[in-house]
Design a protein that fits this description.
The chain is of the alpha+beta class. Helices cover 18% and strands 34% of the residues. It has a single domain, classed as Ubiquitin-like (UB roll), CATH 3.10.20. Strand 1 and strand 2 form a beta hairpin.
Length: 79
Amino acid sequence: MSSCYFCKGKTEIKNVNVDFRWKDKLFVFKSVPLEVCTQCGERYYSAEISKKLDDFVKKQSESKIRPQDTIQVPVFNWR
């Protein structure tokens, strides 16, 4: 892909952080190579990257892999 589907801007590969939700968990992946629109910021995931993210979070609970870092995320009830 070389242009954005939405705004027709130019896209380029950038290493970006990805927030990925799976069931009741939030995973943060740093420096994921995605195609990103330079005009509107829309992100495009290749099939390979999507599969790797899906596979990782599905297997993470069984895996011995530990995160390199953790963060605290405040959660608010919208009422």
